[in-house]
Design brief:
With about 250 residues, the protein is of the alpha+beta class. Helices cover about 45% and strands about 20% of the residues.
């Protein structure tokens, strides 16, 4: 099976959302489910996801939590949220707030960038609550080498591989501005599945935990003390500062 999104109806009757929904449904009856994506968000499906009796929700983290509660081993590998830090945006935001009079389009752009960063951090905190030690990060250490760019979703039934991140823009968005994406599904008995499972396990074994990601994030901020309007000592402090900046730009 393959699903693509782009200009025109590339895969009639089948969408990337359909493949991901099917993957999540069958994961309730799988031994494991691994999600490997540079960007992971707590997006919502276009319609309710119902898997009786375990879950009825549109929000993807509710579904992941229900799969875990079913007894499935779920692991998520993504980039550390320090990868979303935009030093230029944070510096501009602070200057704009203090300056006062700035073009509304510039304010809107800076605000949207801050909201993206805040949403990414909050999604990782929520995932950490749900997954515990099974939320893993590419820190560019050891066997992983450079930066995670693979998009791979695998359970003991199928592997999905392609270009789509585990985000709204990757999975759901069908607007004219949406990314052009493709995912292909490979059954567990087909050529390529075993190799993809080996890749997934190799990535997961080389990854690092939440505390190391958080530590690197805070260390990076500490090296640029003037980047935020006040000192921060934890990720929760960063969230409060970002919320204040967003409110000031509204």
């Amino acid at each position: 099976m393959i699903a693509c999104r782009g200009r025109g109806n590339l895969t009639a009757g089948r969408s990337i959302e359909d493949l991901i929904r099917g993957f999540l449904h069958e994961s309730f009856n799988s031994k494991f489910m691994y999600i490997i994506s540079p960007w992971v968000a707590n997006f919502e499906f276009s319609r309710s996801f119902i898997h009786y009796p375990w879950v009825s929700s549109t929000r993807v983290l509710d579904i992941i939590e229900a799969i875990i509660n079913k007894g499935v081993e779920v692991k998520v590998l993504t980039r550390c949220f320090d990868d979303a830090l935009r030093f230029d945006v944070l510096d501009l935001a602070d200057k704009i707030v203090n300056r006062g009079s700035v073009d509304d389009e510039i304010k809107g752009f800076i605000k949207s960038q801050l909201e993206d960063l805040l949403g990414g951090i909050e999604a990782m905190l929520r995932l950490s609550e749900v997954l515990g030690d099974n939320l893993l990060f590419d820190l560019g250490i050891g066997d992983l080498g450079g930066r995670l760019h693979t998009k791979l979703y695998i359970n003991d039934k199928h592997a999905l591989v392609g270009s789509a991140n585990f985000t709204k823009s990757g999975i759901i968005d069908s607007s004219n501005w949406a990314n052009w994406e493709c995912l292909i599904a490979i059954k567990s008995g087909e050529t390529g599945y075993r190799e993809l499972l080996n890749v997934a396990e190799g990535y997961l074994n080389a990854a690092r935990g939440f505390s190391e990601c958080e530590g690197r994030f805070m260390s990076m901020l500490s090296r640029f003390r003037g980047l935020l309007p006040r000192a921060v000592g934890s990720v929760m402090d960063v969230i409060v500062v970002l919320e204040d900046l967003i409110n000031a730009l509204s």
